[in-house]
Amino acid sequence: MLPNFSRNKIIAIAVSRSEVTKSVVSTLDRALTISVRSPIESTNTCIANRFQLTRITNDSKDPTVDTFRSTTLNILKRFGIDSEGVDLKIVNRGAPPLGGGEVILMVPVVESSLSAVTWIDEGMVKRIRGTTFSTRVSSQFENTMIHAARGIFNRLLPDVHIFTDHKAGDKAGKSPGFGMSLVAETTSGCFISTDTAVSYARGEGDEDDETKELMPPEEIGEQAASMLLGEIKQGGVVDSTHQGLLFLLCALCPQDVSKVRVGKLSPYAIETLGHIRDFLGVKFVITPDPSTETVILKCVGCGLKNLSRKFS
User: Fold this and answer.
1) b/e sequence 214-225, b meaning 16+ C-beta within 10 Å
2) Long-range CB pairs of 273-280, under 8 A, 24+ apart, other chains included
3) Which residue, 60, 111, 159, 187, is most buried by CB atoms nearer than 10 A?
4) Pairing of β 160-167 and β 125-135
């Protein structure tokens, strides 16, 4: 079990083991695994873990903080984590290469263990929500992205709302950038998301990255919308980015059967299944569903419990 570190120690460890040039979301993912172990801060409503992290918040290599807030945290609620204590506050935005963003994550401590799930109903898309961001560039970039994305979505469904979040001054971080995060909510409570972001970083020696950084706002909006439609077409209760997290949460559940449906397995998800087998001893039964071109996975959780909680 992880020792019951103080809040400041946990933050220091999480940041020191990550490269400064990586997105803060890579650390937030690890923070979620810490949150089920030991309480760090007490609020009026629950015992919660509080993480304050500074670095890049939006880039093209990792999921953005907007996707983490709109989709990742909603997946946690499926496994019995109290929704009242789950929150991510974006204090400052930070684009590559210099970052300068800041977020505060609050996650309640799981009292005993996660809850096993049977989650195979994808439902139908009933609404699309999104957020655009811009830092140290014209706010008109966001309007252009929204117009381009709505030009695709409005032909399919009417309930589409994309919000803007233009930052200036200290809240804009240290580098210019802009991008969009989109999430489709289904009638069965699934959240399917995609995001994209560009910045004016140079000198990384990657031609593909430089080409993406030069992409105009209109093409960014069209690309984000097309990517979301692709994820919806692929099927599954989560998008390809969140498959690995979904499998890990299933493996950490009590010794009961969890059953989930996903689309085509991503390379990262396949690698995660191998790590789960090696470190937790949990194996998944994988059954293709030809009628929907999806995959159903079942496993018996490892029975992880929060033994760090003190009995009163």
Assistant:
1) eeebebbbbbbb
2) 273/247, 276/247, 276/248, 276/251, 280/251, 280/252
3) 60
4) parallel
